[in-house]
Amino acid sequence: MKIRFGALALVALMLSACAQTGPSQSAALTNLFVVTPQAPDMRYQLEIAKLNEIVARDMELPEESQAELLYRRGSLYDALGLVTLARIDFNHALEYNPRLADAYNYLGIHYTQLEEFNYAYEMFDGVLELEPDHPYATLNRGVNAYYDNRIDLAIDDFTTFYEAQPDDPYRVIWLFLAEVEESHEAARLALAQRRVEHGNTDWGWSLVDLMLGAIDEQTFLKGFAVRDLKPDETLAERMCETYFYLGKLKQMEGDFQAASVYFRLAMSTNVFMFLEYRYANLELERSKQAIEAASAK
């Protein structure tokens, strides 16, 4: 009972902090620093050159091998932000091997970015039919449903994804982002409870604290944003996440001007493979629409 009381007390403290924070005046925007965009990885470019030679020279490769080569090249194009070339390769790979689940997964992500939501559902459903335990298809289908405003479906997929690894702060955050569309107070309470039950010292949980209001925007940017940067993690990657989730926070506060700034900054990092980079443009467009709607009143 003492443990349970302590947890409930911490939940109450977090919710109190969030309630006291209130709408921001975007003062933290004056303290922003813009990171150098992530440079294209030379290793990816060299591997693409090698794959181009193989594809051009060995036209008699078995179809399955052709599919793997095209899929690999497509994934490298995607990592470099060359999404049109990536889509061409993924589609060609599927012509050689229609059971290549990861190619469907990539195409689903691209369709979500293009707001072609029905096509994206088909891709993700195809992935899960081929590989029911695919590590990311459920998340990606949930993201598609979230941007398609089918919040009930998004919550179902995000819940499944969260329950598979409840100590992953990003799974917690995306479930919260969907739940808050139905009830802000209930979502915030659930987020605080998950923080207490599963939180640890990983940096991502600082983002959860930010959403709860336990850390304010300026404090987060001054110290927490670059805390515990790992040797294999770049500053651009860290700030891509930071800017994106700060943008989501400002949206929830109704400050769409500040949100737009943060989403532009997330896009400026050029961390093409990150989910936060992929969907920053969608979020930017929705923030612009909210600004225009407010101006029209």
Automatic annotation (TrEMBL):
GO terms for cellular component: plasma membrane. It comes from the Bacteria. It is found in: Cell membrane. Keywords: Cell membrane, Lipoprotein, Membrane, Palmitate, Repeat, Signal, TPR repeat. TPR repeats lie at residues 67-100, 101-134. InterPro entries: Lipoprotein_NlpI (IPR023605), TPR-like_helical_dom_sf (IPR011990), TPR_rpt (IPR019734), Ycf3 (IPR050498). Residues 1-19 form the signal peptide. The keyword Cell membrane applies. May be involved in cell division. Homodimer. This is Lipoprotein NlpI. It comes from Pseudidiomarina gelatinasegens. The gene is nlpI.
